[in-house]
């Protein structure tokens, strides 16, 4: 159930409802250093951000929400993992079921109170694996939910 090329809008992607594995750990691939395994426990040690009024706006399957997602901003995770001032152009986020999206450095650095998040919680409760743990939340995307990637397995940082 992959798709980079999913046309939007409208799109006819059927979202996968079944977690590809039970383990929510994921790997960050960085230029110039070894891949780094990221656990949910580690994410909880980083500064937490909450973003309310988030909707999963699915074309064809209806809209769900509003949700208040909690987690670490993508910017915050990269700050923790990369040398200061490290220059990257984009991040590719992939799930265990082969779903993916690209995020540009400009989107990550955008000054906004609705930043891109790696969510581990929803509405005050831990996000369950079947709800997408760890889930990428791109609040600016409201057009098919193609960037609201569940079950992140790999983040690849491109120099
Ligand atoms: N890993 C993964 N993430 C995914 C998808 C998927 O198939 N696999 N589908 C996307 C699409 S098209 C939609 S509409 C939403 C559905 O999210 P929900 O299952 O939380 O309602 O997840 C998005 N994220
Ligand atoms: Mo969707």
How many DSSP H or I helices?
3
Tell me the Rg in angstroms.
Answer: 15 Å
SS-derived structural category:
mainly beta
Count of strand segments = 10
Shape: globular
Q: What would CATH call the homologous superfamily?
A: Oxidoreductase, molybdopterin-binding domain
State the name of the first-level CATH class: Alpha Beta
Topology-level CATH name:
Sulfite Oxidase, Chain A, domain 2
Descriptive tags:
single chain, 159 residues, mainly beta, Sulfite Oxidase, Chain A, domain 2, 5-stranded mixed sheet, 5-stranded antiparallel sheet, 12% helix, binds ligand MTE, binds molybdenum atom
Which secondary structure elements does this structure contain, and how are they paired or packed?
Elements: E1 26-29, E2 36-38, H1 40-45, E3 49-58, E4 62-73, H2 74-81, E5 90-95, E6 100-104, H3 105-109, E7 117-122, E8 125-126, E9 135-137, E10 152-158
Parallel strand pairs: 1-10
Antiparallel strand pairs: 1-2, 3-4, 4-7, 5-6, 5-10, 7-8, 7-9
Bound molecules: ligand MTE and molybdenum atom (MO).
Molybdenum atom (MO) binds next to loops.
Report on the structure:
This protein is mainly beta. The chain has one domain (39-158): Oxidoreductase, molybdopterin-binding domain (Sulfite Oxidase, Chain A, domain 2), CATH 3.90.420. It contains three helices and ten strands. The chain has helices spanning 40-45, 74-81, 105-109; strands spanning 26-29, 36-38, 49-58, 62-73, 90-95, 100-104, 117-122, 125-126, 135-137, 152-158. A five-stranded mixed β-sheet has the order 2-1-10-5-6. Strands 3, 4, 7, 8 and 9 form a five-stranded antiparallel β-sheet that branches. It is globular, with a radius of gyration of 15 Å. The mean pLDDT is 92. The structure holds the ligand Nc1nc2c(c(=O)[nH]1)N[C@H]1C(S)=C(S)[C@@H](COP(=O)(O)O)O[C@H]1N2 and molybdenum atom. Residues 1, 13, 15-17, 56, 58, 61, 64, 95, 97, 99, 132, 144-146, 148-151 line the site of the ligand Nc1nc2c(c(=O)[nH]1)N[C@H]1C(S)=C(S)[C@@H](COP(=O)(O)O)O[C@H]1N2.
């Amino acid at each position: 159930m992959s798709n980079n090329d999913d046309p939007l809008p409208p799109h006819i992607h059927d979202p996968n409802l079944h977690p590809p594995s039970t383990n929510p750990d994921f790997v960050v691939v960085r230029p110039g250093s070894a891949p780094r395994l990221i656990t949910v426990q580690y994410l909880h040690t980083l500064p937490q951000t909450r973003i309310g009024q988030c909707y999963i706006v699915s074309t064809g399957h209806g809209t769900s929400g509003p949700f208040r997602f909690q987690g670490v901003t993508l910017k915050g995770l990269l700050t923790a993992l990369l040398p200061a001032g490290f220059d990257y152009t984009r991040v590719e986020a992939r799930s265990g079921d082969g779903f993916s999206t690209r995020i540009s450095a400009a989107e990550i650095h955008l000054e906004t109170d609705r930043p891109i998040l790696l969510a581990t919680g929803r509405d005050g409760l831990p996000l369950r694996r079947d709800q997408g743990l760890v889930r990428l939340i791109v609040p600016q995307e409201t057009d098919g939910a193609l960037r609201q990637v569940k079950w992140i397995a790999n983040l690849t940082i491109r120099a």
